[in-house]
Design goal:
By secondary structure, the chain is of the alpha/beta class. The protein has a domain of about 180 residues: Decaprenyl diphosphate synthase-like (Undecaprenyl pyrophosphate synthetase, 3-Layer(aba) Sandwich), CATH 3.40.1180. About 45% of the residues lie in helices and about 15% in strands. It has a 6-stranded parallel sheet with strand order 3-4-2-1-5-6, with helices on both faces. Helix 5 links the parallel strand 3 and strand 4. Helix 3 runs parallel beside helix 4 and helix 4 packs parallel to helix 5. The model has no long low-confidence stretch (mean pLDDT about 95). Keywords: Magnesium, Metal-binding, Transferase.
Length: about 250
């Protein structure tokens, strides 16, 4: 172990000692950003190598979350905007995501896909649906994988689903207007049944949500990390938890 690694290990332990179980967020959302820029910074022409390096980081992160006591993790792996990328990049990226999801299934995680699966290629959608079907009974940390996800699209899908549900019961639009409230919409989001994220982390230095969990993050705390996602370390994760623990949550007030 190098001197630098030893220093980081000591620092990690110091950070861990500052955290108590009642300060750990139940639900952490993560925008895994910076894979392409990492590849370019490393002088790699093939940006898919950056996506693969980022995918390799996911398993480490989930172990860190489980060790810390996090109960839910939502990973934004592919946005609806990403689906318009050049096919030469999108194809390998989808393959990386498919392999990642299968690896997470094999590792024993509880996988819950979220997003507009109808926008994805058939094979990718089948991999995600199979992951959900085969892991839904597993206890422990729930891993939401957001693929083909967009916050505005999610809200539109929720409203569409709500209208369809009421129409199937023979209710009119006027009937729905009389009873509609925020909870009705929340019950039709991709994350229905799950708590809203307490903490949202974004890597790569960008300080915006870009549409990630628009509805659910109304009262979330945010942590922006300069490191590209492939370079995200356990010490960075612990710093995010420390930052969260130090805040006084006002829930919009």
């Amino acid at each position: 172990m190098s001197m630098r690694d030893l220093v980081y290990k000591l620092y990690e332990r110091r950070l861990e000692r500052t955290l108590s179980s009642d300060q750990i967020p139940r639900h952490v959302g993560i925008i895994v950003d910076g894979n392409r820029r990492w590849a370019r910074a490393m002088g790699l022409r093939d940006v898919s190598r950056g996506h693969q390096k980022g995918a390799d980081k996911i398993s480490e992160l989930l172990v860190w979350c489980r060790e810390a006591g996090v109960e839910y993790v939502t990973l934004w792996l592919l946005s609806t905007d990403n689906l318009s990328r050049d096919k030469a990049e999108l194809g390998p990226l989808l393959q990386v995501i498919e392999n990642l999801v299968q690896d997470l299934v094999d590792q024993g995680w509880h996988i819950n896909p979220m997003g507009s699966l109808d926008l994805l290629p058939d094979h990718t959608a089948r991999v995600l649906k199979h992951a959900k079907e085969t892991t839904s009974h597993r206890p422990g940390l729930i891993v939401n994988v957001a693929v083909g996800y967009g916050g505005r699209r999610e809200i539109a899908d929720a409203v569409r689903s709500l209208l369809q549900e009421h129409a199937s019961k023979g209710a009119s639009i006027e009937d729905l207007v009389e009873v509609l409230d925020v909870e009705h919409i929340a019950e039709h989001l991709y994350t229905r049944g799950l708590p809203d994220p307490d903490l949202v982390i974004r890597t790569s230095g960008e300080q915006r949500l870009s549409g990630f969990l628009l509805w659910q993050s109304a009262h979330s705390e945010f942590y922006f990390c300069e490191a590209y996602w492939p370079d995200f370390r356990r010490v960075d994760f612990l710093r995010a938890l420390r930052s969260y623990a130090a805040r006084h949550r006002r829930y919009g007030s």
